[in-house]
């Protein structure tokens, strides 16, 4: 049994350790991190999944605000599930629950990731949306939380500053 709850400041070091475990060394050199530097995450959307009893951290997701051209968007990620808990639906639960909360106040989400995984949540490739280089455009995916929210939206993704 696990529960998904908002991340607290006390969770932060454990979440960082989980991301270090799940991603290749040097993850913070990825271009998406340039969009996060000096910008606070969207706290109400950052979630952790903890197993009971014991409170083992099974997974975590964070979101940052960004701009695409001039319009606001959410950047989903990082998201990671502990290797011992992968394939049990935790990643899907973290994504679905956080997206449900995101619908209250946000119109569109983007991420850099594998289309075969994120397609199941409705993410599709975004044409004309440019993440900071080097980013494979095939991996730039978006989801409209409000109908038509990505229509006509294009341009560079920039930090929320
Ligand atoms: C990607 C990740 C968050 C998915 O979480 P999870 O809890 O293991 O995933 P779920 O249980 O919700 O879904 C499992 C399904 O997704 C598939 N899947 C997982 N990662 C995938 C990927 N990168 N590409 C395609 N399919 C993937 C699994 O094969 C499985 O398929 P099935 O339902 O047909 O059996 C997790 O595997 C992880 O932390 N990976 C390492 C870090 C990472 O790559 N993060 C994402 C960066 S874009």
Automatic annotation (TrEMBL):
Q: Name one GO molecular function term.
A: acyltransferase activity, transferring groups other than amino-acyl groups
Q: Transferase among the record's keywords?
A: yes
What keywords are annotated for this sequence in UniProt? Transferase
Superkingdom in the source lineage: Bacteria
Q: Where is the signal peptide?
A: none
Output this protein's name. Predicted N-acetyltransferase YhbS
Task: Give all residue intervals belonging to the N-acetyltransferase domain.
Answer: 2-146
Which organism encodes this protein?
Answer: Roseivivax sediminis
